[in-house]
Amino acid sequence: MQPDPFGNLREWGPVLEQIYQLADEGNLSECQSGLTRILRYRDNWRLREETLLRIGKIKTPDDAMVRQVLKIIDDEKLYYDVRILGCQTMAELMKNSSARFNAATETDILNKVEVLSSTTQPPIFEEALNKLYSVAREKFRIV
Q: In sequence order, what DSSP letters do the residues of 41-104 get, joined into one string?
């Protein structure tokens, strides 16, 4: 399978169907660069949310995709629901990953969550950040 089989993201109906099919078949890990492109795509909230809902099951997430999820969590211009979904997805990626993340990425995740948690956030987002931080500390073996 090609790493980015999704084509034109403006034609989002077929892209969404393709994501569903790949997820059902367990083949999302084979097209992570395409999934990362979808996560970066700002013109369709549904594609982004549906992708976040499904990528947490990937056992070996690539660094670019993990970093894009972190960017979603950190992006103050995005609505809180998608940022919370990003926290949940990141936690799921950590729990399901068969290996540790790149060391620099692990550090960035912890630092970003600490910075976001150090400022006043809506309670529901703060709760998502706290859960993510707990999972990250466990995954990265931080006491």
A: --S-HHHHHHHHHHHTT-SS--HHHHHHHHHHHH-TTS-HHHHHHHHHHHHHHHHH-SSPPPHH
**How far is Cα 55 from Cα 89, in angstroms, rounded to an integer?**
7
User: Of 59, 48, 41, 40, nearest to 16 (Cα)?
Assistant: 48
CB-neighbour burial class of residue 76 (10 A; exposed 0-12, middle 13-18, buried 19+):
exposed
Model confidence over 95-132: pLDDT tens digits? 999 888 999 999 999 999 999 999 999 999 999 999 99
Measured distance CA(32)–CA(63) in Å, rounded? 10
Span 12-139 CATH architecture: Alpha Horseshoe (1.25)
Alpha carbon of 16 to those of 19, 35, 37: distances in Å? 5, 11, 14
